[in-house]
Design brief:
mainly beta; Immunoglobulin-like; five-stranded mixed sheet
Length: 202
């Protein structure tokens, strides 16, 4: 891949070789097998490999352009006021937990290094929880992830200014630490009040 397009008169000084086969090149340290890539200097009489590195995915027919072509047209800020999701929160002050019978809605925010609320008590076995997570970060390159161990669906990725929902039905009592927070689950017949908070012991 040469920036702009494949050409006998390339635009730029570098070529990126994006290869599929990596036979005996990298240690098998995880479930994903990497592909290989090389950054090559093509500006002189002879090519020179500048960097040889593993990469993910098979970039068939990939191409590139100079950053100057698009940088002024790139959205870099997401306005929370434009989030019209029915379960969105626009600040940490709007976060809350609401119970309707056996259904619990958690209106949660995520920003940089923490979630609000990060401690929830008391959920009961058999409850159905909906975590509605709003990413309060608004810069384009700060997505947030959210997952709960044992949830029967995929993790969610929340882009800046966006709200997404994860459903969870706890199967057993205990304290479930999730993303630097805690959800305490009591037996199904427990008669305990619903409480939540952030950064404090409940």
């Amino acid at each position: 891949m040469i920036p702009s397009r494949d050409s006998r008169k390339p635009w730029g000084k570098y070529l990126l070789a994006m290869n599929k086969i990596t036979k005996d090149r990298y240690l098998p340290v995880g479930p994903e097998l990497h592909q290989s890539a090389q950054l090559i200097d093509i500006s002189g009489e002879k090519i020179r490999i500048l960097l040889d590195f593993p990469t993910l995915g098979e970039p068939h027919y990939a191409n590139g352009i100079h950053a100057d072509v698009i940088k002024e047209k790139t959205l870099k800020y997401y306005d929370l006021r434009e989030n019209e999701h029915p379960y969105a929160v626009k600040s940490e002050a709007e976060t809350r937990v609401e119970r309707k019978g056996n259904v619990v809605h958690v209106y949660m925010s995520a920003i940089r290094t923490h979630f609000t609320p990060d401690n929830i008590e008391v959920i009961r076995v058999g409850d159905t929880l909906y975590f509605h997570v709003t990413n309060l970060d608004q810069e384009y390159d700060i997505p947030q992830g959210f997952a709960i161990f044992g949830a029967e669906n995929a993790n969610i990725l929340i882009m800046p200014g966006e709200t997404r929902t994860l459903k969870w039905v706890p199967k057993a009592p205990g304290v479930h630490q999730e993303m630097q927070g805690y959800v305490r689950v009591s037996p199904a017949n427990a008669n305990v009040p619903l409480k939540w908070g952030t950064g404090k012991q409940l």
